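User: Could you write out the 3D structure of this protein bound to NAP? I've included everything you need below.
Assistant: Certainly. Input first, then the structure.
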Amino acid sequence: MSATEDASPSPFDRRSLVNRVAAGLLGTAAVVTTAAGTGEELRLLTGVDTAASASEPGTKQSPIAVVGAGGKTGKLAVEGLLKRGRNVRAVTRTGEFSLGGGDVGDLMTTAAGDVTKTDTLKQALAGCGAVLFCASASKKGGNAEAVDYQGVLNAAQACVELGIPRLVVISSGAVTKPDSLGFKVTNVFGNIMTLKRKGEIGLEEIYAAAPKGLTYTIVRPGGLTDGAVIGPAGIELNQGDTIGGTVGRGDVAEVVVEAALSPATENTIFEIYDKKSRGPLQGGLPKTSGYERTGESYEAMFKGLQGGIGL
Ligand SMILES: NC(=O)c1ccc[n+]([C@@H]2O[C@H](COP(=O)([O-])OP(=O)(O)OC[C@H]3O[C@@H](n4cnc5c(N)ncnc54)[C@H](OP(=O)(O)O)[C@@H]3O)[C@@H](O)[C@H]2O)c1
């Protein structure tokens, strides 16, 4: 295992995390004035015993791995998990990862895991309770064939072999609509849409043959933006890949985190976009799919999701 952990995080760095946790949970006016962020402070803020760090897959305190943690959405997903007091394993190709605020001690470890290299990936994911696949093609990491297709399959295979109960993968809206403008424009970048869809299909095949209790969720965001998080009330989930829009990376990060923690998303595929931006993916498609999900919380929206849609 190549996971590393800073044995002596600076009090300043820890306080920074506690402040950010507090701001996320209590609103931006929240200020924590304690001298140093400790596990006890995080427990008080989050209601979660951060001292415990179970490593059995499926137990409440098993770390949740974020693969591609250094990417824009990956980093936000790490923060979303920490905000909820969850143990996180931040997985990057190099094993290096920083939140800017520094190391966060007990709650987070880092590990080197390259999705194109199954041995490093399995080492990085061992003992995790869930995996969030936020990796995508990059200059040094590999093209879409290697990362968005084969990398997804490698992650699915690793999760099945390691007995990790849940894999959540970020794919893309419109992957099943090759005639849509969104597909055509995005696919110019190394056939990424074609390859993401191949990754979805391969993943489904792996899980169809997997032991019961090992499950996946595929999240298909619309066009990504870096705007402020709008939260579930401003979001629409959908199924069937007929409606799309735009969505902030922060909202995508929130939904993948929530999906990993919810049994209602087991073996489902769903789209996510800002409901103000919604529209049919291509001419001739109806304005509604009949699978729209809106609500005040993701858990409420998840409850209506159906398996077998969008395969
Ligand atoms: N852009 C859009 O409008 C849009 C729309 C729909 C869906 N999406 C999808 O949404 C997801 C998140 O997008 P994003 O823009 O937030 O991602 P991003 O910032 O591009 O991050 C991708 C991450 O993947 C990592 N990575 C690349 N190769 C890897 C490998 N071999 N092993 C492990 N990690 C590797 C990269 O690390 P290094 O940089 O260190 O290599 C990077 O940190 C992606 O799947 C993307 O395709 C995007």
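The domain at 50-302 is CATH 3.40.50.720 (Rossmann fold).
User: Perfect, thank you.
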